[in-house]
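Wait, can you check?
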Amino acid sequence: MDRSLVTLTPVTEPGDDRLATRHYAPLYRFALSLTQTEAEALDLVQQTFYRWATKGHQLRDASKLKTWLFTTLYREYLATRRRENRFPQVTLEALDNEPAIASAETVERLDAEVVLSALSRVHEVFRAPLALFYLENLSYKQIAEMLGVAQGTVMSRLSRGRDQLRRMLAREFGTRTNENSNSPHLKPQSHP
């Protein structure tokens, strides 16, 4: 089609009150059937008339005005739903009752960061045996050889280091420690 022959003629003035009067009720009913809430339906109708005010001059055929309005309203509804799905709005009150959800990898990473941070504050005498035992999976004998101490000293330092680390983590998280129980993450491993 030759673009030079096409002329755009406004079907009606976008600010025409007769247009709003004639099409408002059917548009509102359609919007209400889509959204199920009055506020959202009113917003959709308002947005449709806004589109008419900004782009209505492009409509070439007056007989298609009603179709254009309903199509525009429906497209606005779909765009709104897509936005809501992509960026859901959650009230803070709703979050108060919901449990926090995190992936296992996130929890593991955060747990490791917390423990490593606490480990860095443990007395240096205990830090090396703890790191070698738990992070490097070395045996008591290997640690004793590396540090140049007796195997019994390594075992003693590991025990006292675990206790210090357990107390530090308990203070940080406000929980009571049971001196006789080992934390599940700080249980001695069996090494050959």
In short: The chain has a mean pLDDT of 76. The helical segments are 17-35, 38-55, 65-86, 92-96, 104-119, 124-135, 140-147, 151-173. The chain has two domains: 8-89, 104-186. The two ends are 86 Å apart (CA to CA).
